[in-house]
């Protein structure tokens, strides 16, 4: 092979994850610590809980507006979308010592988000699974990079807000911290008229 050969790389169809640290005052969300929680509904989860209420951000209109504004900036500035979006569901998650969750995705949503309320350390990363494996063979990379990742994890930190496509399978890795860790999960759906030709629809979210 010619040692001077070069490759043109076309990073097609990425599953885009975007993160930002919010500077706004989100202290009001600390009230979610006193909400009613139920265990995550899977035998493959441990010491992981969610609020019984799946619309908690309706109790926090200021914080709801902040999160939706950031999502709209992501949709318009990064994805270059002209659609309107609404929050379809939102809940708080509590992970206790030695807790973790199973792999899952978020059905009936276009995009999802997680906002971390604590900076407690101890692992509990959010780990995403590659939805497009490059081959059915289990190969041995010399190093991991964006072209061969099987999984990718992001370490939580206080006020970190992540957006990602709802189809991405993800889980909470084992959390070793002593204090419970809280986060807010959010789902987004398009509303109004969208689509093209005979695939045009008009959805309105019922409040």
Short description:
The protein has 207 residues and is mostly beta strands. It is 9% helix and 34% strand.
Structure commentary:
By secondary structure, the chain is mainly beta. The protein has a single domain (about 20-190), classed as q2cbj1_9rhob like domain (Jelly Rolls), CATH 2.60.120.620. About 10% of the residues lie in helices and about 35% in strands. Strands 1, 2, 3, 4, 5, 8, 10 and 11 form an eight-stranded antiparallel β-sheet that branches. The chain has a three-stranded antiparallel β-sheet with strand order 7-6-9, with no helix packed on it. The radius of gyration is 19 Å and the shape is globular. The model has no long low-confidence stretch (mean pLDDT about 95).
What's the structural blueprint in terms of helices and strands?
Layout: E1 18-21, E2 37-39, E3 46-51, H1 61-78, E4 84-100, E5 111-116, E6 126-129, E7 151-154, E8 160-165, E9 170-172, E10 181-194, E11 201-203
Antiparallel strand pairs: 1-8, 2-3, 3-4, 4-10, 5-8, 5-10, 6-7, 6-9, 10-11
Mean pLDDT: 93
Number-wise, the strands total 11
CATH class: Mainly Beta
Task: Report the end-to-end length measured between terminal Cα atoms.
Answer: 63 Å
Provide the gyration radius in Å: 19 Å
Helix content: under 10%
Count of folded domains: 1
Structural class based on helices, strands and sheet pairing:
mainly beta
Most strands sheet: 8 strands, antiparallel
The fraction of residues assigned to DSSP E strands is: 25-35%
The secondary-structure element order is EEEHEEEEEEEE
Number of H/I helices = 1
The CATH topology corresponds to Jelly Rolls
């Amino acid at each position: 092979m010619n040692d001077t050969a070069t490759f043109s790389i076309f990073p097609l169809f990425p599953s885009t994850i975007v993160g930002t640290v919010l500077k706004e005052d989100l202290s009001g969300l600390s009230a979610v610590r006193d909400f009613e929680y139920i265990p995550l509904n899977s035998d493959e989860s441990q010491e992981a809980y969610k609020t019984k209420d799946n619309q908690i951000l309706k109790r926090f209109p200021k914080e709801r507006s902040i999160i939706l504004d950031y999502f709209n900036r992501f949709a318009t500035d990064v994805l270059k979308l002209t659609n309107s979006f609404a929050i379809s569901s939102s809940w708080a998650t509590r992970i206790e010592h030695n807790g973790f969750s199973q792999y899952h995705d978020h059905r009936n949503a276009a995009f999802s988000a997680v906002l971390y309320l604590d900076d407690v350390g101890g692992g509990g990363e959010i780990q995403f699974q590659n939805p497009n494996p490059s081959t059915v063979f289990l190969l041995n990379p010399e190093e991991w990079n964006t072209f061969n990742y099987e999984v990718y994890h992001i370490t939580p930190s206080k006020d970190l807000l992540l957006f990602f496509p709802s189809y991405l399978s993800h889980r909470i890795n084992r959390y070793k911290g002593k204090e419970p860790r809280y986060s807010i999960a959010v789902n987004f759906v398009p509303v109004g008229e969208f689509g093209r030709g005979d695939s045009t629809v008009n959805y309105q979210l019922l409040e």
